[in-house]
Design goal:
2 domains; 6-stranded antiparallel sheet
Length: 202
């Protein structure tokens, strides 16, 4: 007899497009940035970038405080580059940002933004994913359902198509795809996907 669980659904939606000044506009704060964007969608986290306009701020840092995709408090520090460029982005995904503080006033303008990559937590404990609906962002790409963390192994991959808004539905037979103790997470790029609905045991 197949496993019967309490099936729940969770919706993930990216509402804020990537950009170099989404979180904070170009400025030279003495302590904290004035935040212009603090959250980025429904159940979605984003990696944060810092863009410098000058070449004299290498080694200065920006301490970010916020909430991660698991709903827990999250901090990470960005080290500013020594050239007029954009950092690669934080390792962690921030569902929201509550403050951004510089170690010293920048000599040139600095802005804070987000990358196109998105991530969210489906469930924090052992679960089985039963079905997934993914909606294309207008390009062919992959939506990854990962075990343990946003960087964990993808146990389920769903492809999107090139028609924006088109829905791809995957119904998983038998007992679904099992995700162990660390739980299940979803990652995708906003150019490939802009929304996901997941049905899982929870």
């Amino acid at each position: 007899m197949s496993f019967m669980g309490d099936v729940k659904s969770k919706f993930f939606l990216t509402t804020t497009a990537a950009g170099t000044a989404v979180v904070a506009a170009l400025a030279q704060p003495t302590t904290t940035f004035t935040l212009t964007g603090t959250s980025f969608g429904t159940n979605i986290g984003k990696q944060i970038t810092a863009t410098t306009a000058g070449t004299g701020d290498g080694g200065k840092t920006v301490a970010l405080v916020g909430v991660g995709v698991d709903g827990e408090a999250l901090t990470e520090t960005i080290t500013l580059p020594g050239s007029a460029t954009t950092t690669a982005g934080t390792t962690n995904y921030f569902a929201s940002v509550t403050s951004a503080t510089v170690s010293a006033q920048p000599a040139a303008n600095v802005s804070l933004g987000i990358l196109t990559t998105s991530a969210g937590q489906v469930f924090g404990g052992p679960t089985r994913i039963r079905q997934a609906n993914v909606y294309s962002g207008g390009a062919i790409g992959s939506v990854n359902f990962r075990t343990t963390s946003v960087s964990g192994t993808a146990l389920l991959v769903v492809r999107t198509n090139a028609t924006e808004g088109n829905s791809t539905t995957v119904n998983i037979p038998q007992d679904g795809v099992y995700f162990p103790v660390g739980g299940a997470f979803v990652t995708f790029d906003e150019t490939d996907c802009n929304a996901v609905t997941v049905y899982f045991d929870g």
